[in-house]
Write a structure and sequence with these properties.
By secondary structure, this protein is α/β, with parallel strands linked by helices. It has helices at 8-22, 37-49, 67-81, 98-117, 128-140, 145-148, 171-180, 197-207, 213-241, 258-272, 281-291, and strands at 29-32, 54-60, 85-89, 122-123, 154-157, 160-163, 242-245, 248-251, 295-298, 301-304, 309-313. The longest helix has 29 residues, at 213-241.
Length: 319
């Protein structure tokens, strides 16, 4: 039996939030559903707002014995709603950093599914509490503007267009929607596992009752808008300040603020060394070298300072 309809005011709020990110709805939309309370709420809201347009998918990473049963639970829930559902099974072992590798695999499988189903984009259930946790984690790591922009409302991952219409919604709100539907969500033990940074931080934030995730999430959104504005400016500067020739690229850095110089430098390095463009401290050191008028090689790119900065593939080392 299908769950009861979601509160009409919540459905309209969801519709507005989604259309603010992706424009007027047309065609089919995908929803990633793990079976947890957040993604179940997303499924219910999306189905209530666009009942004929929703398709759902669950990724089974095969990391826990319960995962197959959890995917089957989502399939049963979708059947009750009349929502087409696919279980995407991991086709390779998850190795290395567990959470990072699982995330990469999840988006790759979702991208393949969306392409095969002809979906313009897929929705994920990231919400305001997730955004606040991300912002605090990255502050603690000394992130710059791009990192502090947090979880983007709309982005592309592994060739998949992703929208996150719940970034202004609180975790408790979403849990309430699922309770009202009479569903018992899946509980992922990884969310409570102190081996993971986010799980430890989540516990600390829950104890800090003076800290409100909602304004933290709004701050991340404001930072994301500032970051996008800088990216727009850099696109213009790439056209105005960068000359291309068979020998390489030349940048006129005169009068530009340091952050714009840094971003232009990143774009140029990515153009000349797409396989492994450097970041972080290596770029800061290179920036200082160029501003001092000196020359350095980084990521296989020879970089010469001076009134104009010149970049070209470094010659192969002599043997």
């Amino acid at each position: 039996m299908a769950p009861p309809p979601t509160d009409p005011e919540l459905v309209e709020r969801f519709r507005r939030d989604l259309e603010r990110q992706v424009g007027a709805m047309s065609g089919q939309l995908g929803v990633a559903v793990s079976g947890g309370p957040d993604s179940l709420a997303l499924l219910l809201l999306a189905h209530a707002a666009f009942p004929a347009a929703v398709r759902a998918a669950t990724v089974d990473h095969r990391l826990r014995p319960e995962s197959a049963a959890e995917a089957a639970f989502v399939a049963e829930t979708c059947a009750g709603l009349g929502v087409p559902h696919a279980i995407l099974t991991a086709d390779e072992p998850v190795a290395g950093n567990l959470q990072s590798a699982a995330r990469a695999l999840r988006y790759r499988l979702l991208a393949r599914w969306a392409a095969e189903a002809g979906l313009a984009f897929a929705l994920t259930a990231h919400h305001a509490d997730d955004q606040a946790e991300t912002l605090v984690m990255r502050l603690n790591r000394g992130a710059g503007l791009s990192g502090l922009s947090g979880i983007r409302a709309a982005t592309h991952i592994a060739g998949l267009a992703v929208a996150r219409p719940l970034l202004s919604w609180r975790r408790d709100e979403l849990a309430g929607i699922v309770r009202a539907a009479g569903l018992e969500p899946v509980s992922d033990p990884g969310n409570r596992d102190d081996r993971f940074d986010r799980a430890r931080l989540r516990k600390q934030l829950a104890r800090a009752d003076w800290l409100d995730p909602a304004p933290l999430a709004r701050s991340a959104e404001a930072l994301a808008q500032a970051d996008s504005a800088l990216d727009w400016t850099v696109e213009k500067l790439m056209e105005e300040r960068v000359e291309r020739s068979p020998a390489g690229l030349t940048l006129d850095p005169a009068g530009l603020p340091g952050e714009l110089r840094r971003r232009l430098l990143l774009r140029i390095l990515a153009a000349l060394a797409p396989a492994a463009p450097p970041r972080g401290e290596a770029v800061q050191r290179l920036l200082a070298t160029l501003e001092a008028g000196s020359t350095a090689t980084l990521a296989g790119v020879k970089c010469e300072g001076g009134p104009l900065w010149r970049f070209a593939p470094a010659p192969p080392p002599r043997r």
